[in-house]
Amino acid sequence: MDELRHVLSELVIERVGFGIFVLDRDLNVLMWNRFMADHSGKSAEQVTGKSIFASFPELPRVWFTRKVESVFQLGSFTFSSWEQRPYLFKFDHDRPITGGVDFMQQDCTFMPLTHEREVRAVCVTISDATHASMMQRARDEAVAKLQEFADRDGLTGIANRRYFELRLRDEFSRWQRYGGELSMLLFDLDHFKRINDDLGHLVGDTVLRVMAERVAKSVRVQDVFGRFGGEEFALLLPCTNFEDAMIVAEKVRRAVGETPIDVQGARVPVTTSVGAARARTGVTSSYEALINEADAALYTAKREGRNRAVGFA
């Protein structure tokens, strides 16, 4: 019966669907199962009795040594997930190459093997977590795309109002705490209703998209450009004083209005009116107040004849 148990134990160890190998305190390999041999290309005869690093010099020596040593010292299990370290051994996997994973993703368990309450060896198991990692990555990418769509305006592809106001609120809080400069612009297309009425909403949508593309090319990486609603747009300018904000406002006005937009065989002349405002210490009480000041400046630009940039006085 004992001999049968021994045979069955060896069969199980050799045929299980995960890697098993055993190390002594000097990190010499005492046992190496078929999974490890098949995936590493090195048989038990080739690695047994040698240091694990002699057969696999690419292993993370410091990290791996600490893991094994902690099991010898504490006599307790330790674990490493593919999320912490994607793999220990560079094994090939059988998943589609389109999954974005170069090598088998691995979960590793380090277990003490004791005799008379003394840890005599450490058993390491290697589980193939490639499928789980690819599924997790796919979920993460899907969530990221959904979040991006939630932050974007469906017509123009720039930030929507919700996301713009979130960023404005954060920048305003930072300005309140640390000081510095903060400005914003509000602008819309002049007589846009006339474009929709005379040429149709499809032309109007094209005009909005082209206008957004033109402005997007002239803003900095740290700026936030968003659609505020309808034909109204906003540009958040962190670390920007009022004089520079007015320069940006003029750039926006020129980017929109210098060249008519060609759409469905028609050349549509488009201009924009821009209102600028800055956060002022002791005066601007909230980010909503900053929006209101920019909106007041925009109204002044409209009243004074349109196609101009006006700053809040």
Automatic annotation (TrEMBL):
Uppermost EC category: transferase
The protein's name in its UniProt record: diguanylate cyclase
EC number(s) given by UniProt: 2.7.7.65
Record PROSITE patterns: GGDEF (PS50887), PAS (PS50112)
One Pfam short name: PAS
Record-linked InterPro entries: Diguanylate_Cyclase, GGDEF_dom, Nucleotide_cyclase, PAS, PAS-like_dom_sf, PAS_fold, Rev_trsase/Diguanyl_cyclase
Sequence ranges assigned to domain PAS in this UniProt record: 12-56
GO molecular function, one term: diguanylate cyclase activity
Catalytic activity: 2 GTP = 3',3'-c-di-GMP + 2 diphosphate
Domain GGDEF: 180-313
SUPFAM superfamilies, A to Z: Nucleotide cyclase, PYP-like sensor domain (PAS domain)
PANTHER family: DIGUANYLATE CYCLASE DGCM-RELATED (PTHR45138:SF9), REGULATORY COMPONENTS OF SENSORY TRANSDUCTION SYSTEM (PTHR45138)
Span of the signal peptide: none
Species of origin: Caballeronia insecticola
Cellular component terms per the entry's GO annotation: plasma membrane
Gene Ontology biological process terms in this record: cell adhesion involved in single-species biofilm formation; negative regulation of bacterial-type flagellum-dependent cell motility; regulation of DNA-templated transcription
